[in-house]
Amino acid sequence: MSQATLSSGRLRHGLAPWARIAGLAVCALLTLGPVVWTVSTSLRTPAEAFDLPPSLIPANPSTEAYRGVFDQIDVWLLALNSTLVTGLIAAGQMITAGLAGYAFARLEFRFKKPLFGLVLATMMVPLQVTIVPVFLVLKSMSLTDTLLGLIIPAFPTAFGTFLMRQYFLGMPKDLGEAAMLDGAGPWRTFRSVYAPLAAPGLAIVGVLAFNYHWNEFFRPLILETSGQNYTLPLGLVSLQGNLGTGSISVVLAGVVLSMIPAVAVFVVGQRPLREGITSAGVNR
Amino acid sequence: MTNTRIPPARAARPEPSPPPAPRRPPARDRGTRLLATLFLAPTIVGIVVFTVVPIAGSVGLSLFHWNVIDSPSYAGLSAYGEVLGDETVLVSFRNTLVFMVFAVALQLLVALTLALAVNGRMPVWLRSVFRSAFFFPLVLSAASISVVMKYLFNQDFGVINWLLGLVGVAPVPWLTSENAAMATVVLVYVWQQFGFSFLLFVGGLNNIPKEIHEAAALDGATGLRKHLTVTLPLLSPTLLVASVVGIINALQVFEQPYVLTNGGPGDSTRTVVMVIYETAFEQLRFGEASAVGVLLFVLIMAVTALQFRLSRRFVHYQ
């Protein structure tokens, strides 16, 4: 008792709850502020876009900027490229990681440990360090400046394989053994017992792949040289470059359009995304 | 994902094969091996072609002078000598290290403070609103966000200087002065990245058993002191993960300086990855670019190893 009364209030209780929540609210505003500004400015006419103060809700909302983006760049083509690249990579990673993760978790074969060690070790290697040889490998396959050149190297995923291995290890072993006793071969055991249970794990791999590759900039910048193969982030940065500081709202309208799928995935797939991001601490 | 794996010694299962047989039926064995080979092939072949060979290739290329057009000529370690004597390369390493220190420190500080605050008592819906808000920037493209931030931080018509002007602060040359530019790049990077460490910390805090907090409260430790003496040590494994990943990512920073400042003013925000990009794909000096890449890799490995070594003293596993 006396101990408690001696300590000063601030140190004893920390901040008052209302102050803590108010502080959090301010931080949340700072975090979301740039996004809100982007959306509201994209709804201003290009002529008003520079005006200060910025308004939360534009006085004369206009879709002129959005029409501007479609005039300046081929949004549909960029979106199609981004969708193809991201969708195929996500699907490909779910397949490769699902299969390899299952093999590492549930199949017995020679060199299992060193092979798994190899997979883990490559998680440590930054893409930027290997980009020059990767570029040359792709060039020798005539895959530079093609969408396939972006897609194929991204199929193997060390992190996804690790994640799926853990996922399959978490499933009861008895299931497979029962199937084996009933005469199911290794393929049947995988196909009808384990694979159907893997969907939540695969969702994490898919959502992470989508989030990363939809926003990817470095590899497209290096690999895609002709405009027809640009993905959305590349198209937007070059749009800003072309326009200089001419019309903010047009560029911001492009940014908003490119954010829509990422935001949709954030809303629908927040849980797998969060689990994926925190599960091993690899996000880039 | 809990690990309910049964230890490999599980020979007790009744199997149709004769008891002394040391091997399972060969047909099934072969089937398993074939399946394993098929299942692993895409991943292993992909990793070998697009990661293992390129690592060897980076080291190999760094020993050659090559501009893609002429045939490569062996140059020994001279690319390393050239690179280490190049003022721009040295500055880029210094910039990257400075960036890393400030970005990681700020990111961890912001994330930890917010995680502790969110962890306090409040309605469940409010907590999930905050959690979603802080996590949201992670799903956006670093390149597009940098485009947005370039407008916000503009000295003349940017919203940030306008807001500062309301409280009487003179316009800050956020992107156009050598001193401020790096700070701006750090701010933009941290704005987008802190949600990652935040999520890790929220998870780590949830894993601390309630009894420990209650015991600490009984011993009279509350508020800030409780956090310093009880929470932080228990959170130290999470801190290690967050800082290791934070450092590895920060050392590879590219999009933000590329879009915000393009390395300028002068070379004040040029980072190592920008130099790799420019040396290889603008100047077509593949040998030198590979040498810089190898140096960056060595730096990342060294920093990570150092960190794990230091952490043995400070990280407290339950």
Model description:
The complex is a heterodimer of chains A (284) and B (318). Chain A has 284 residues and is mostly helical. Chain A has one domain (69-280): MetI-like (MetI-like fold). Chain A contains 16 helices and no strands. Chain A is globular. The model of chain A is unreliable at 1-12 (pLDDT under 50). Chain B is built from twelve helices and two strands, in the order αββααααααααααα. In chain B, α1 (26-61) packs across α12 (286-314), α3 (87-119) runs antiparallel to α9 and α9 (223-250) runs antiparallel to α12. In chain B, β1 and β2 form a beta hairpin. Chain B is mainly alpha-helical. Chain B has a two-stranded antiparallel ribbon with strand order 1-2. At the A-B interface, α2, α3, α5, α6 and α7 of A face α1, α3, α4, α5 and α7 of B. Chain B: It is a multi-pass membrane protein.
Write the layout of secondary structure elements.
The complex is a heterodimer of chains A (284) and B (318).
Chain A: H1 2-6, H2 9-13, H3 17-42, H4 64-72, H5 75-106, H6 112-122, H7 127-140, H8 147-151, H9 158-169, H10 173-181, H11 186-194, H12 199-214, H13 218-223, H14 232-243, H15 248-268, H16 270-280
Helix pairs in contact in A: 3-15, 4-15, 5-9, 5-12, 6-9, 10-11, 12-16, 14-15
Chain B: H1 26-61, E1 64-65, E2 73-74, H2 78-84, H3 87-119, H4 124-135, H5 142-152, H6 159-166, H7 178-206, H8 210-218, H9 223-250, H10 255-260, H11 272-282, H12 286-314
Antiparallel strand pairs in B: 1-2
Helix pairs in contact in B: 1-12, 2-12, 3-7, 3-9, 7-9, 9-12, 11-12
Biased composition (Pro residues) (chain B): 15-24
Keywords (chain B): Cell membrane, Membrane, Transmembrane, Transmembrane helix, Transport
Membrane topology (chain B): Multi-pass membrane protein
